[in-house]
Known about the structure:
GO terms for molecular function: hydrolase activity. The chain is α/β, with parallel strands linked by helices.
Amino acid sequence: MTDFKxxxxxSGNRDKGMVILGDHAMRHLPARYxxxxxxxxxxxxxxxxxxxxxxxxxxLCRRLDVPGVLGGFSRLLIDPNRGEDDPxxxxxxxxxxxxxxxxxxxxxxxxxxxxxxxxPYHRAVDETIASVAEATGKAPLVLSMHSFTPAxxxxxxxxxxxxxxxxxxxxxxxxxxxxxADTNLVIGDNEPYDGALRNDTMFRHCMMTGIPxxxxxxxxxxxxxxxxxxxxxxxxxxxxxxxxxxxALHEYKRYQSRTGPYEA
Length: 264
């Protein structure tokens, strides 16, 4: 297992004060798990990873010259965007697909995956955010990248992209405004998902610490190839740079989560 990387660090200038995250960027599995009992064709589906996000994160980090962290394993192995106490941390079924390698699962295996994959990823996120804060002496701006399917259960989703958030709107408000300025785009606000999820990546690393942040979902058919990835990287690099220049997005301020009080 020592040759399997649970995360990939993308280098960048820490003095820029920004961090890009891609929780579900990759679809890799350690050799011991094979394909978790799934056919190879399943590994082109959204149930395994966020389509287009690895390429989009790499383009953004390069253009903005900022560091990033990518999850190095498939979300089916264990979901880095869930808390350790979340019952959906290791999925037994996803969008109609039964995951044989996850059911049944022993407590020992469940805990092993947390220790071997989930925690190393989050330590890398912690360390990256801390190193940027140390370099600038200020709160970094953290932007988490995800993608969603064009349709769900046969119903088309109209949004080109959506911003998910809990209660800290400091980065959310300008991001929605800048994306919404393009009249060709339909931009969702906490659609098709609600961004308030206790102990997920943004809760853990930003809400609890008072760091300005936003989670952006891009529709997968729009970033399913290099042309689409470049188009969205062009759009987002400009927007992210403008946001990053705002001193208000580099201040620590903790907001009360909609999920309830923080633990002492």
